[in-house]
Write a structure and sequence with these properties.
This protein is an alpha/beta fold. It has two domains: 239 residues, Alpha-Beta Barrel (TIM Barrel), CATH 3.20.20; 53 residues. Helix content is 42%, strand content 14%. The protein contains 14 helices and eight strands. Strands 1-2-3-4-5-6-7-8 form an eight-stranded parallel barrel, surrounded by five helices. Strand 5, helix 7 and strand 6 form a beta-alpha-beta unit. The chain is globular and about 55 Å long. The structure holds flavin mononucleotide. The site of flavin mononucleotide (FMN) has 23 residues, from strand 2 and helix 10.
Length: 303
Amino acid sequence: MRLSVAPMLELTDRHFRYFARLLTKQTLLYTEMITTGAILHNKPEKFLEYNEEEHPVALQLAGSSPEDLAQCAKIGEDFGYDEINLNCGCPSERVQSGSFGACLMREANLVAECVCAMQNTVKIPVSVKTRIGIDSDDSWEFFLNFIESIAKTGCKYFIIHARKALLKGLSPKENLTALPLNYETVFELKQTHPDFKISLNGGVKNLDDAKNILQKTDGVMIGRAAHKTPWILANADSEIFGAPSVNNTRLDVLEKFLPYAQSQLKKGISPNIIKRHLMGLFHGMPGAKEYRTTHLHSFFSLT
Ligand SMILES: Cc1cc2nc3c(=O)[nH]c(=O)nc-3n(C[C@H](O)[C@H](O)[C@H](O)COP(=O)(O)O)c2cc1C
């Protein structure tokens, strides 16, 4: 819980998670959001298969039917996931039309029912990822009522993206940039309920930011920066968890990842699906552009 990499659609797939594990063994990794419909109407392995090396890994579910969520949580537990997380923070139109994600913040009782159903079905922890408000429902009372309603089910794990979401008028991208971050609300939640396990998410760029926030919360979740500048994870084990670092250099990471990449390409995975996760490895280093445009490019066109 102390440090995690956020669920991010099209970014935190199992290939990225395999790559991230070469940088940090301890950081909790989240899957992309997976809808209950995708799991229940297809072969679940299509969405849930992962590499054993990825542990600890949490499955993020999107849905709003207690029965479906409970069923998917159980399937996730049987696949060996270490935690099930419910998405109550995504504001995209597609997600709203399915009545899940951030619009669930207006359905505190339903979310509590969903969480209760999942907790009754699995032994692994169930957590909720949410925002500090939606649209004009952005008061402290609204936010606190939402969290407390869920906590009544016994759920104590909350990941709070410290900005509100606008359900109309902003694209998902603008919903990550146009509105200000408000860490104080998250700190206040932890102060009000010291027994809740609170992770703060939003705008964390590096481990120094994370360490500052950890003075006031139980955990920090890093999203975009973990994908854009993955090397920030390299010292997480020692600096955040007090454990030995993996101690790989950037080149070691590449050397260990490329055979994995090759094995995936042989299975028919498209090169671009894998290559995109490696683009940021040398971010900010001399030669980073050449690495991206020449070295990576030739590896993925030759194999
Ligand atoms: C490309 C992209 C995809 C995302 N997909 C998800 C998702 O599937 N589930 C979710 O809860 N949040 C999703 N998010 C939001 C992130 O988990 C995180 O809350 C947000 O990026 C803020 O953290 P950051 O400032 O550290 O990036 C996504 C964000 C991005 C940029």
